[in-house]
Each structure stands twice: as C-alpha cells, then as structure tokens.
Amino acid sequence: MLYAGLFAVVLGVVVSLAAGGLSRFGEASAARDLAANARVFDEILAARARQMGDQAGVLARDFGFREAVATDDAPTIASALASLQERVRSDMAFVLTLEGEVLAADARGVPAPETLWARLDGGGTRGIIASDEGLALAAAAPIEAPDLIGWLVIAQPLDRAELDRLVELAPIALEAQVAEAGSQPEWLRGAAANAVFEREAEGERFLYHVSDLAVLQDGIAPRLVLRHDLAQSLAAYASLKWWLALLAAGGIVLVLGLSWKVARSVTEPLQQLDEATRLIGEGRKANLTITTNDEIGRLAQSFNQMIAAIKERERQIQLELHDSLTGLASRKLFIERLEARLSQDISDSQLMLAFVDLDNFKTVNDKFGHPAGDALLREVGQQLRSDFSDALIARFGGDEFAILFDLQACRESLQRQAEALQKSIAAAITDEGRKANCSASIGIAVAPADGHRVGTLMKRADLALYHAKHEGKAQYHFFAPSLDQAERARIRLERDLRDAIKGVGFELNFQPLYSLEKRRLTGFEALIRWNHPVRGPISPLEFIPLAEESGLIIPIGEWVLREACHQASTWPADVSVAVNVSPKQFTATGIANTVLSALSASGLPAHRLELEITESIFTADVDQTLATLHSLRTLGVKIVLDDFGTGYSSLSYLRSFPFDKVKIDKSFVEDLGTSGNGHAVIRAITMLAAALGMETLAEGVEDVTQFEVLEREGCQNIQGYLFSRPVAADAVTGLLRDGAGYQRQLRA
C-alpha cells in the first residue's frame, strides 16, 4: 500500500507535468513544422527559379536566338519566347536590351525597364518582379554574342492558385500570402524575418513566419507570410491528457500485482539486453542467452538474429562497395560518389575523370599466370592510393581503373595531373609487367566542360580512352567533341559493315604470285574489296581494323576463305590461292573445321590452299597456337608466315614451327634501292629459309632492279605491281594466259 501511495503521488506529478509538456511540445512542434515548411517554400521557389533560369540559359546561349536579338529579328524572337513560355508554363517572357528596349511577343504587363536594369546589370538572375497582374517569380539569363547584348527574362505569377498549390504540399494546415511589405499591417511589417512568432487574433492563437523574398526589380519588397492555427495543433493533444489520467489509475491497480513478476522476469533480462546493446555500440561482440520462451526470450532471440543480419549486411556492403582484390572502391560506389559530387556546385573547380586501361594485360596473365596479373593489379592500386590520396580511385573490373580528381579551374592543372597519373602508373608496373611489355592508356573527361551528368561524363572518358588506345597505347588523351563525331562515324561504318556481311557486299581481287624458279605464275593472293553503296570503294585499311575490333572479322574471314576456294577451283590444277587469316579468326574455335568445310564445298585440293598468318597469333597461348597449326598442316594446306622480319620474335617462331613459306615484308624490298645493307638482309633471309627447308616470297616488288636483286639473292617467289595490281576474279584467266610473256618482258 505504501508503494501504491508513493506511486500514485509520483504518477500524479508526472501526469501533470506531462500534460503541460504536451502543450509545450505541441506548440514547439507546430513552430518547428512552420519553420520547416517556410524553408521548403523558399527551396521550392528557389528550385522553380533555377529551373526557369536553366531554361532561359539554354535559349540565351542558342546561336540562332542570339543572332535574332543582335539583328532585332522580332518574329524569331517572338517565336522563341512563345516556345519558351510553353515549355516552362510561364505567363511572361521578354528580352531587355542594353538600350532599355523590351522585345516580346506581348509586352503587356512587363515592368518598366529602368526598374530591372540595376538588378540585371549587377548580376541578378532570380527574384520577384511586379507586373500588372501582381507579383511574379522571375529568372533571367544574359545574352552574349559574345559581348553582353541584353537579358532574357521569364516569369510565373505568384497568385492565389500558385500559393494554394504550394500549401497543399505542406503536412500541416497553412495559409500563405505573398505581398508587398508596405501593404501589410504595422505589426507584421515590424516582424523579424525568418522567425516564428505567436499572435492572438479574434480569440484564436496563430503562429506566423515571415520570409523576405529575393527581388529582380527595384522599388518592391515582397514578403512571404505563413500562418498556422495553433488551436488545431493542440487539439490533437487534448485527448492524450485524459488517456494519461486513465492510464495512471489503471497503473496504480496493476502495479502491485505485476511489480514482483516484472522485477523477476523483465528487469534482469532487460539489464542483459542493455549490456549487450552497449557492447554492440562499442563494436564488440555480444550474444544473449535464451532461457525462456516468453516475450523476453523471443526478444533475446530476435536480438541475436538482428546481430547476425547486421554482420551479413556489413559483409555484403563491403563486397558491393569495394574491390576484393585491390581494396579500391567498386564501380557502384564510384558512380554514387561521382553523382553526389556532380550534384554540388563545381563552378570554381574542375572534376577530372580518368579511365585507365592496362595495355597488353592479357599477355601478363598468359605468360606469367593469373597470380602475377593479380599482383600487378594490386601494385597499381597501391601506387595510385599512395600518389593520389585525395582522389577517388576505383577498379571497374579486369584491368580497368577509374580516378576522380577535384582540381582548380585551369587547363595547366589538368595537364600536370594527367602527366602525374601516367608517371604513377608507369612506376607501378612490376618487373614481370615490364617483361610483358605492359603499359597503360588513359582517357580523360572534365566536368563541367565535357558534361555534368554521370552517364555523359563516363561515356566521354571512355571515348577518350578508346582514342588513346588506338593512337598507339601508353599515352593519355583528353575528350574532344571531334571524338563524338568519330564515334558516330565508326558506329555508322560498323552498321554498314554488318549489312554488307548479310548481303555479301564484298568481292575478291587477286594479285599474282610469280615463281622465279618455274618462270611463271603459280598462284594468287586473295584480297577483299568493299564497294560501299553510298561512299564507293572503302580501303581495307579503314574497315579491316574495325572488323577486327568488333569481331566481324570472323564471318568476313569465313566468307573470304569460302569464296577464294570456290574461285581457285576453276583455275588450272597447278595454281594455288593464298588467303590471309586474322589473329582473331585464327584463335576462334573451329578454324580447322572452317578450312575443311571451305575445301569440301569447293572441291579444291588442300595442297592448293595457302594460309597466311602473322606472328601476332603467338602472343596468346603458344602451345594452343602450335597445336592449331599442326591440325591445319594435317589437312594438307600450306602455312605461310606473313610480314617476316617486322616483329621481335620471327626467328624463334621459325624454329618452333616448320612453315612452308616465309613472306619477306615489303619494307625490306623497298630498302633495296635506298639502303646499302638491303642486299645483305635479303640474302640472310633467303639463306635462313633455305636452311630450314622453307620457300621465300618477296612482296611489294615494283621495279626491275628489285626483281634482279631478289633473283640474284636466291628469292624463289615475288609479288607486286611489277607484274600486276590486284584484279577481279574474271581477269585471272587472262593473267594466266599472258603469264608466259612476263619472263620475256623482264628480260627485255
């Protein structure tokens, strides 16, 4: 009973304090809500003004519009302003020239130019103006061609309907009014701005908030006044006081009966839960022992499940936001932070987005194994973090990295940062990486100059990276508008190339191969030609690299192989055909089956087909490459090493595989007339090939002097314009018929 009495006294005091506290809380809550809604109103008005300003800025920067303003082209100006009004749902749009002239489709309601001049000339871009229809929210943008020639102003009225739409967004009942300070009551004019105050009117209590609005016109002082009925807010708390009293009475009745049970079954487990929560807050491990199956036991079980779920979520977040190999940010985290940074004001700085791609990284994995490749990636990541601790660095996967720098707004800082980045990555390449000839290409885009959206900026950095790799790798390249044009042209050409594959828009030309031993034409090299339906003939130097890059070289190569075998099947039995096989086509699965299918379909004997390959096919898996070459040799076709002498490992590849023929690059043939040691080089190649049991063929022979040197130095076959340029398939028969005349012509 003593406990119940003390409980009743304390509870009475608590209820009394709670009732008063509820009232004060209701008043404070209403004041906070009113202040918060005032800020929301200000932000909405500012956002609408910014949106209008952006739209005005787009038109003000339009070349045609600036020209129309400069030349006083009234119809064009009126049309553009009408279109702008329709887009932004504005009731007023006009141009104010430096001479104070107003240009508009309808100048009614436009304020006097002299009242706007000072604000606009001072750099004002947003604020309130007064028109014949009342106050309006306005935004302005300078018109420069290139010097300032005027301002473009658009406005939306702040009438009752507009304010009512804003009020509907508020979570509490409000009344909003925008009016001139001079037209307001004395007590309201003297109220401090941006502060909530209470005033009683007609026996009711009201809360007020006054905001001074930015203006774009001299002579006006508009204010936003918000009013909230305090009685409505406090009415929600009135019933709570009665419920407090009822609960107090019920509590006194129940307290004696439940106090013992509560003390034994709740207090002690709650203390354990409190202790476990404190440990979790400190980052330490905690786990509750479940001893009962009541609410406390289930709470302990839920607590343990929550801890397990938190740990799992932390693990998943760590995996999603960071690269497991390098510890750098993941693509997802990088894009989120880039988007957040772009949403901020970057007018006084430049965001430099750099995409880094390691050149020839696949060679590192192939030659030294994936552990060496992983070690190289970790080294690059560690070096970047060490050199650029203030930058945001991420690994996008594979051998691609992304770095975001926040720099001062000057071109020199961009250049210096790009050079520093290139040096940092070069320093990170390990010894194994240098052996694999590994380097890095860097593509750079800069915000806001190259875009202020994540997708646009990343796409342009990727275009710059693409350009850097295709210019020779191991360099950096900034985005330029011309890259966009080049990318669109490349996409159009790739689309046309796909159409040509579907419609077989290609044809083959054939260049004769002349045997110095047999004194006659013994074969032809098949060369693809593309006659574009719009552009006309397109050089293979233009479309073959694109086909290699896009993977279209595989179906193109298959067509060339089938068509060359078909054409050769109509030639004499002692005439062969040579077909170039690209590295991508060679490494694709089933090259041997493709060759066998072409031979079977055409009926061409395998020994009449020569496949020309370059040493670049050996840069991937050498063992697999040799196995493929042996499988082709088993079919009976001849294997020719093309462009011999232009690579670094030609001699080692001659030792690795018994080629049937070595094709001497035309650069050595050209040196016969300009270099003193050209004869020695040709002699060394022919002697080496003869020692290994291989034929030699010199390409690019264009004059008789080269012919005579090659014949004297023991070259067995030659090819070039001295005999014939590549000819169409229907001209091959004529070349074969006239081939006997070549020897007489050369001797003459």
Secondary structure layout:
Blueprint: H1 2-61, H2 63-70, H3 74-88, E1 92-97, E2 102-103, H4 113-121, E3 126-131, E4 134-144, E5 148-157, H5 160-168, E6 175-180, H6 186-189, E7 196-201, E8 204-212, E9 222-229, H7 230-281, H8 295-321, H9 331-342, E10 349-359, H10 361-368, H11 370-387, E11 392-397, E12 400-408, H12 411-428, H13 431-435, E13 439-447, H14 454-470, E14 476-478, H15 481-503, E15 506-515, E16 520-532, E17 536-538, H16 540-550, H17 553-568, E18 576-580, H18 583-587, H19 591-602, E19 609-613, H20 622-635, E20 638-644, H21 650-656, E21 661-664, H22 666-670, H23 678-691, E22 695-699, H24 704-712, E23 717-719, E24 727-728, H25 732-738, H26 740-747
Parallel strand pairs: 13-14, 16-18, 18-19, 19-20, 20-21, 21-22, 22-23
Antiparallel strand pairs: 1-2, 1-5, 3-4, 4-5, 6-9, 7-8, 8-9, 10-12, 10-13, 11-12, 15-16, 15-23, 15-24, 16-17
Helix pairs in contact: 1-3, 1-7, 7-8, 10-11, 11-12, 15-16, 17-19, 19-20
**Rg, Å, rounded:** 41 Å
Q: Outline the biggest β-sheet.
A: 8 strands, mixed, barrel
Query: Helices and strands: which structural class?
Result: alpha/beta
Number of strands: 24
Mean pLDDT: 82
- What is the topology, as strand order, of the major beta sheet? 15-16-18-19-20-21-22-23
Q: How many angstroms separate the termini?
A: 138 Å
Strand percentage, roughly? 15-25%
Considering DSSP H and I runs of 4 or more, what fraction of the residues is helical? 40-55%
